[in-house]
Amino acid sequence: MSRSHGPRLLLVSNGHGEDLSGAHLGQALVRLGGHAVGFPLVGHGETYKQLGIPTQPVATRSFPTHGMNYQTLGGTLQELLNGQTIDGLRQSIAAAQAARHYDAVVAVGDVLPVVVAHLSRRPAFCYLAAYSSHYEGRLRLPWPCGRSLRSKRFLGVFSRDRLTAADLSTQLGRRVEFLGNPFMDAVGVSNLPLPSLPHPRVGLLPGSRLPEALNNLALMLSMLLRLPQHPGRVPLGLAAALVKDITVDHLAARAAQQGWRLQRRRPRCPGAAAMELVQGSMGVELYWGRFADVLHGSQLLVAMAGTATEQAVGLEKPILQMPGAGPQFTPRFAEAQRRLLGAAVFCGAGPPGSGANARDTARLLMVLLRDGDVPTVCLRTARERIGRCGSSQAMAQAILGSLN
Description:
Elements: E1 8-13, H1 16-31, E2 35-40, H2 46-50, H3 73-81, H4 84-99, E3 104-108, H5 111-119, E4 124-127, H6 145-149, E5 154-158, H7 162-172, E6 201-205, H8 212-224, E7 237-242, H9 248-256, E8 261-264, E9 275-279, E10 282-288, H10 291-297, E11 300-303, H11 307-314, E12 319-321, H12 331-341, E13 345-347, H13 355-370, H14 374-385, H15 391-403
Parallel strand pairs: 1-2, 1-3, 3-4, 4-5, 6-7, 6-11, 7-10, 11-12, 12-13
Antiparallel strand pairs: 8-9, 9-10
Helix pairs in contact: 1-15, 4-5, 8-9, 8-13
């Protein structure tokens, strides 16, 4: 992207999902004449680079917990032991110092980017990607987040859903806007649509981080074997959205433990999968790096993911959870996700990873596909809790308009 002569903005984010939103917001700012630079507090900011947004030159590190919220006690201890807490403080100080050379700072995430923006002494904006009033009914912002956001230095505050905007507008005594979530722009269109089917397709979202994603996929495959196999059952298409880190060798070895065979297919039309997992009469088509295509082409998603699940809900898709062993998609994380995303998210009964959970999840999957009220519920949930695609543009317009 060419350098613009408009205002220079530093986007400070602290996690994989936050980087995704920050990068899409950065693209919108550049399209409208601004100059955007990313400053990831966690990880290397690969998403910024992939979308053409430069990052502030600073030493970066990746950590196993990836800056996630709702960590287990083990995850919190791991952060302390591997230096993530100390590194986060060091990065935050560096970000606050770097921000003073920009016209404005945009905080994307939670309390840490907000404090960085406040300490920079520059005009600031905030997209509170990590907090929602849906978790507890009334949002309790951690200190000193609320105090910082009340500062006149913050020219705009954006929430992730309607309820939070209303709640924080009252709490902070200032206008908080809900303009949607920039991460939806990553899945606004299907680049290479999946082949159309005469029957429903169920998408599998096992997550993006190894080895957890492979473990999650194994739970999903176990659940699929509990689906009804009688001759009169409604046929289903099955498609798994996989990250490129899941290699063919890893996948073949793990699936074989459950009796699945990995085989190549002859794609009969553009967009069809080149590989699938097969057991008996059941086949799961495999799509690497085609997450948006699987979302758009599925009527229901079995999900063990964070931001990916929120994107699916934003596209008005029903979600069926399968809590696992973590470190991310634990029962605690899944329960918090249901509070966040509401009536579009469902979860089977039984202990996580158990045969009882697999059986009830399979039963619920078939019930949801037949329930005619589900599309209406998903539409309402998408509008109230996620918002439409194109929010990056709306947010960028609000930011640049406040700086003029």
